[in-house]
Write a structure and sequence with these properties.
By secondary structure, this protein is of the alpha/beta class. The protein folds into 4 domains: 174 residues, 3-Layer(aba) Sandwich (Rossmann fold); 66 residues, Helicase, Ruva Protein, domain 3; 122 residues, Zinc Finger, Delta Prime, domain 3 (Up-down Bundle), CATH 1.20.272; 72 residues, 2-Layer Sandwich (GMP Synthetase, Chain A, domain 3). Helix content is 52%, strand content 7%. It is built from 26 helices and 8 strands. The strands form 2 sheets. It has a 5-stranded parallel sheet, covered by helices on one side. Helix 23 links the parallel strand 7 and strand 8. Helix 21 packs antiparallel against helix 22. The protein starts with 16 loop residues before the first helix and ends with a helix. DNA polymerase III is a complex, multichain enzyme responsible for most of the replicative synthesis in bacteria. This DNA polymerase also exhibits 3' to 5' exonuclease activity. Belongs to the DnaX/STICHEL family. GO terms for molecular function: ATP binding; DNA binding; DNA-directed DNA polymerase activity; metal ion binding. It catalyses: DNA(n) + a 2'-deoxyribonucleoside 5'-triphosphate = DNA(n+1) + diphosphate.
Length: 592
């Protein structure tokens, strides 16, 4: 057509730049997967005919250390050597389970381990001829695709957001089909404990007898919530908490890779705060690097980490413990106030003291050098370990533990911490219970009387006077309890007597229960509650027995007088007669 534009040449508005600058569908998909799982795809090549270079606007965004240093090989998975050894042997012997379960606290590498297992099972090697290996190459297409999260045969599902039977039904339907390009079709289900009970029941049959080309990899932090039927169908790996020393070494390597200087004490504090979690530790390290002062070339210092985490200064903690052990109450309150002014929470203060006491105890038992990042702290802990006894350390720990619980529940944590530490300080002056008991035994063996009331009266003055049993009986009689007083005189053989407590014995022919009657009489006479207990021990003679013994002794003394002996010699049949009996006999005769 004459008015039609000439299509044989280039159109005026067709410059060809759109085809060159628009990314392909594969590149868009890879970019989306990278944004979700990590590594970014390589940028599209710069067109050769571009008139001018545009400013750099598509630079790789910053990735946090926890994602950047996620392990890509089993050699980079720290602290889980037993699990790696088991997997390596299983792969070497071709004894791979069809389902694996990774458990453990957050941040120890459960999901990372699942992805590494997926790479190990599907790796084909750089030449494309390799088989399952514990050391995946990382350069073949399956390894790269799994690392970038775009492999079509490795399906990762978050059970926290896919909890129902319908989600599991999709898996059951899909496992019937073979893998598209990989050796195994692998399902990674994170936080598997979040699946509903019906979803677990729906998965059981497939989990027990899956097709040969399917592997299930489960990860969970709460293994107790999984049904026993699921646990029995999986091979379980309990991932350990990472030791503090290993975390510190790992963080030092990360700082070296990042070109960041860090003090060993700072890394030790970060590793201790991580509580065995690599991800938590890397997140704290990331924050510490960002918090570092640019004027000091971004060095991560112990003071910076201590301030960021709200921890007590180690030297201040040692000074505070020193005031407690020396009995300096004013110094203790001043040290607590200084720490609180610096932003140290009372609960963290108590935890720091407990940590010190624990390390001192461990050093004392082990006999080696205490665990501490600095030589000054090691020397101080070693000195305390040599000076304090095991009993003192255990008592100190118990008091601090009780104080920690009080501070945690108190409406005013600072006041509670002050009172708890003052109690610890004053308890240090108390004698050791074992030594006190031994001293009391020695005093008893040497015949030294021990005061019944602990040595101090109610007013804290002179020692309390010992109770007199005869006076107590007269006091009961004066209160109107004549029958009880008669029983006390005739039957009671006192074993132990102190205010509020009576332990007694009786002759074998007395069998009735008199304890309630005595308890009521003593309470009425003294105004204090009494504990009255009969025992099998041999007590002192009763008052009647004492009087009879005194009378017999007096008669024996009179009988031994020379005049009485002469009278008996002159009148052998004579018998001694009491004066009262003579008067009563005379009155009876006059009456007749």
């Amino acid at each position: 057509m004459g008015d039609s534009p000439d299509t044989s040449g280039d159109l005026p508005w067709d410059t060809g730049e759109e085809d060159q600058t628009e990314p392909s569908a594969a590149e868009l998909e890879a970019a989306g997967q990278s944004a979700m799982f990590g590594d970014a795809p390589p940028p599209p090549p710069e067109p050769a005919s571009a008139p001018a270079a545009k400013p750099e606007t598509s630079a790789q965004p910053y990735r946090v250390l926890a994602r950047k240093y996620r392990p890509q090989t089993f050699s980079q998975l720290i602290g889980q050597e037993p699990m790696v050894r088991t997997l390596a042997n299983a792969i070497a012997r071709d004894r791979l389970a069809h389902a694996f379960l990774m458990t453990g606290v957050r941040g120890v590498g459960k999901t990372s381990t699942a992805r590494l297992i997926a790479k190990a099972l599907n790796c084909v090697g750089p030449d494309g001829e390799g088989g399952p290996t514990i050391d995946p190459c990382g350069v073949c297409e399956p390894c790269k695709a799994i690392a970038e999260g775009r492999h079509i045969d490795v399906i990762e599902m978050d059970a926290a957001s896919h909890t129902g039977v319908d989600d599991v039904r999709e898996i059951i339907e899909a496992v019937r089909y073979a893998a598209v390009s990989a050796r195994y079709k692998i399902y990674i289900i994170d936080e598997v404990h979040m699946l509903s009970r019906n979803a677990f029941n729906a998965l059981l049959k497939t989990l027990e007898e899956p097709p040969a080309h399917v592997k299930f990899l489960f990860a969970t932090t709460e293994v107790d919530k999984l049904p026993v039927t699921v646990l029995s169908r999986t091979q379980r790996f309990d991932l350990r908490r990472i030791p503090t020393e290993l975390l510190q070494a790992h963080f030092a390597w990360v700082c070296e890779e990042e070109g960041v200087a860090a003090e060993p004490e700072a890394l030790h504090m970060i590793a201790a705060a991580a509580e065995g979690s690599v991800r938590d530790g890397l997140s704290i390290l990331d924050q510490a690097i960002a918090h570092a002062d640019m004027g000091e070339e971004g060095k991560v210092t112990a003071a910076l980490v201590r301030d960021m985490l709200g921890l007590a200064d180690k030297s201040a903690q040692r000074r505070l413990l020193g005031t407690i052990l020396e009995g300096d109450a004013k110094g203790l309150l001043a040290a607590v106030a200084d720490q609180y002014a610096l932003g140290v929470e009372p609960l963290a203060l108590m935890r720091g003291l407990m940590d010190l006491v624990h390390r001192i105890t461990v050093a004392q038992i082990g006999g080696g050098e205490p665990e501490a990042p600095s030589a000054e702290e090691r020397a101080a802990l070693a000195e305390w370990a040599g000076r304090l006894s095991a009993g003192q350390l255990h008592r100190l720990w118990q008091l601090l533990l009780k104080g920690h619980e009080e501070v945690r529940q108190a409406p005013d944590p600072l006041v509670s911490a002050q009172m708890a530490l003052l109690r610890v300080l004053h308890a240090a002056d108390l004698p050791d219970p074992g030594k006190l008991a031994k001293k009391l035994d020695e005093m008893a063996a040497n015949g030294i009387a021990v005061p019944a009331g602990g040595g101090q009266g109610a007013g804290g003055g002179a020692p309390a006077a010992a109770l007199d049993w005869r006076q107590l009986v007269d006091q009961v009689r004066a209160a109107g309890h004549h029958h009880a007083a008669s029983i006390m005189e005739l039957q009671i053989r006192v074993v132990a007597l102190e205010m509020g407590t009576l332990r007694y014995a009786r002759a074998a022919h007395f069998r009735d229960d008199i304890a309630p009657q005595l308890r009521d009489a003593l309470t009425a006479a003294t105004g204090q509650r009494w504990i009255v207990e009969q025992c099998e021990e041999q007590g002192a003679p009763s008052l009647v027995e004492q009087d009879e013994a005194a009378k017999a002794a007096e008669q024996a003394k009179v009988r031994a007088h020379p005049l009485v002996e002469a009278a008996y010699a002159a009148f052998p049949e004579a018998e001694p007669v009491e004066e009262a009996e003579i008067h009563s006999s005379g009155r009876a005769a006059w009456g007749r």
